[in-house]
């Protein structure tokens, strides 16, 4: 006859069995996640987009139970390459390279691969087939914003354009801008300007003041990065031209929503992915590599068009409400596997 103590022990083992089975479902090295170390090496960090991206990286890393170390080069290309080397020296298992310049990151990324470290790159082309590229579908971001501009203004208008070459996402958005101009010869670009000097919005505003003064006939500003759009809006507001100039951008944050919803705001639409979700996807893609799985050469997070009218009609005041009222914005079913734990929603 089984004793009460033995019977109780059997019941306990049966009750624990499902839990143990679930824990064993995670492949190595995630069966011991506390021993997994990853690094995020950042080039750009100024602005709400990058803070939200970092938050997503942190939350997904925490959900997986891995250790995360963040390196922030603050737009110093040489320092970012050095920080990749620091991460290699620390013996991390995986590295996320976030933005940067191809010429400075290509060799650094290769050194990490040569050291046996798994690497993914977000919005920087390191020209390495071993490194998956995390993208926001930048061409679609630009396309959606420009389709909104044409829907609102027709296909014949005077344009200003904010652009800094050499940054992968901006270069991809520039490809779409060039195509839209070619397809719509009535669009007349009279000024191109831009800077990534910190603080970016204020630096762009300084440039935009001069551009608007020299070109008071500008009707549309295409500023395909929200810090660019903020800077343009500062200059447009100061010039008293908010009723004349319409701004179309990419990316979004709570601060952007407030600016778009100001009475008479010139900021009409933006195309965006949720930067926190992109951060989560970056970690998940890296986790798949570490587990011996293939996230694909390109891991693309689809964007959403967000208009001033939509924000007002749905009374959306912040990113949380945007995700709640536009569910497609709150999560991307990208770089997912059955064993992957997600952050709490």
Question: How does this structure look, described?
Answer:
The chain is α/β, with parallel strands linked by helices. The chain is 48% helix and 17% strand. The protein has helices at 4-25, 48-64, 77-90, 102-114, 138-153, 168-183, 200-214, 226-238, 254-260, 275-290, 308-313, 319-325, 327-330, and strands at residues 37-42, 67-72, 94-98, 118-122, 133-135, 157-162, 187-193, 220-223, 246-250, 267-272, 298-300, 304-307. It has a six-stranded parallel beta sheet with strand order 2-1-3-4-5-11, sandwiched between helices. Helix 3 packs parallel to helix 4 (102-114) and helix 5 packs parallel to helix 6 (168-183). It is globular. The termini are far apart. The model is unreliable at 1-24 (pLDDT under 50).
Largest sheet, strands/sense/barrel = 6 strands, parallel
> Hey, roughly how much beta strand do the residues contain?
15-25%
Please count the beta strands (DSSP E, at least 2 residues each). 12
Radius of gyration: 23 Å
Distance between the termini: 49 Å
* Sequence of secondary-structure elements: HEHEHEHEEHEHEHEHEHEHEEHHH
Structural class: alpha/beta
Question: What order do the strands of the largest sheet run in, or round the barrel if closed?
Answer: 2-1-3-4-5-11
Q: Helix count? A: 13
Mean pLDDT across the residues is 91
User: How much helix is in the residues?
Assistant: 40-55%
Low-confidence stretches: 1-24
Mass-distribution shape: globular
